[in-house]
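Our preliminary data section would be incomplete without showing what the modeling component actually yields. Below, a chain of 199 amino acids is followed by its predicted structure, encoded as tokens that our downstream tools consume directly.
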Amino acid sequence: MYSVAIQAGGASSRMGQDKALLPFLGETLLARVMKRISSLGDEVFVTTNHPERFTDFGVSLVRDELPGKGALGGLYTALRAARYPLVIVVACDMPFVNAEILAEACDRILANEVDVLVPFTNEGYEPFHAVYRRDTCLPAVYAALQAGERRLISWFPQVEVLTLSGDEMLRYDPHQLAFWNVNTPDDLHRAEELAVELA
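Predicted structure:
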């Protein structure tokens, strides 16, 4: 019933190299993310502008349908490619992506029959750690792209969105690391240190 889409299409400009392929405690960052969440889905795939870089990962690869359209274009590709009606979408640069939060989101999107189940923290929405209902979200995302929108959540007012609050997620993420994404070499180094400390 669930597709898992891992977004690996970003430019990685601040890192200076493809973040998905960065070494992280003996494996790549992408491999770590896959390991943490692949059990949640009936299919797992990676969306990317460069599928040739990921042929050794043993996972389905989907080329971005709308290159140059940023994160919103990547989300469109993920929803279009998904075989199942509910789509878990995460970013490849989140080393502490949290399967328990995503499982709770899956339960709630079914129980409440909403279109999007997304965490909401003091930093705002976390749309790359969320669950989407493909059939209702896909046309809304497409319409936003056609209107020239680039913001990832620009289409949220067109669908029914339910959030998970920071307080609700503390039981699954007591160190509040789930949404930390790695953008710079310093971020990567600190994430590795924390992963060792918490192991």
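The beta strands are 2-7, 23-24, 27-28, 43-48, 60-63, 86-91, 116-121, 124-125, 129-133, 161-165. Residues 2-198 form a domain with the Spore Coat Polysaccharide Biosynthesis Protein SpsA; Chain A fold (CATH 3.90.550.10). Preliminary results of this kind motivate Aim 1 of the renewal.
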